[in-house]
């Protein structure tokens, strides 16, 4: 009878062991299927997203260069405005408007001709936004 009890105990242990092996095999199958899903689905999606992000990074680099170029252009214009103000003197805006609307008398014009030659206005070279954003040339849909 002790021998029968040992056989039953051994049989139960073997059943538990087989159950654990089945669970382990099920886990391995699940890991295998998850791995194949990662390899077949997730990695191509990640690669596609990475390619899109590289495209976006290039756009950001171009935008940074564009902003830097505009900053330099604005700084140059600001220097020209400051120089023009120092060359012409800082008149109040009402005097500036009056001077623009009336013509200068001829005797003042002769005396200031040398000064006008020194401060001859040259329009600055400005960029066109359409050169950098071609979509602005397109007609709206």
TrEMBL record:
InterPro entries reported for this sequence: Cappuccino
Sequence intervals crossing the membrane: none
Gene Ontology cellular-component annotations: BLOC-1 complex
Protein name: Biogenesis of lysosome-related organelles complex 1 subunit 4
């Amino acid at each position: 009878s002790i021998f029968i009890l040992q056989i039953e105990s051994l049989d139960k242990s073997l059943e538990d062991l087989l159950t654990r092996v089945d669970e382990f095999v099920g886990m391995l199958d699940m890991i295998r299927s998850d791995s194949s899903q990662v390899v077949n689905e997730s990695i191509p999606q990640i690669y596609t997203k990475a390619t899109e992000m590289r495209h976006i990074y290039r756009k950001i680099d171009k935008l940074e260069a564009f902003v830097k170029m505009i900053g330099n252009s604005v700084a140059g214009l600001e220097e020209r405005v400051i120089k023009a103000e120092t060359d012409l003197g800082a008149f109040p805006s009402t005097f500036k408007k009056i001077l623009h609307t009336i013509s200068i008398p001829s005797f003042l014009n002769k005396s200031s001709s040398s000064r006008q030659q020194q401060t001859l206005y040259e329009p600055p070279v400005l960029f066109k936004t359409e050169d950098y954003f071609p979509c602005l040339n397109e007609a709206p849909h």
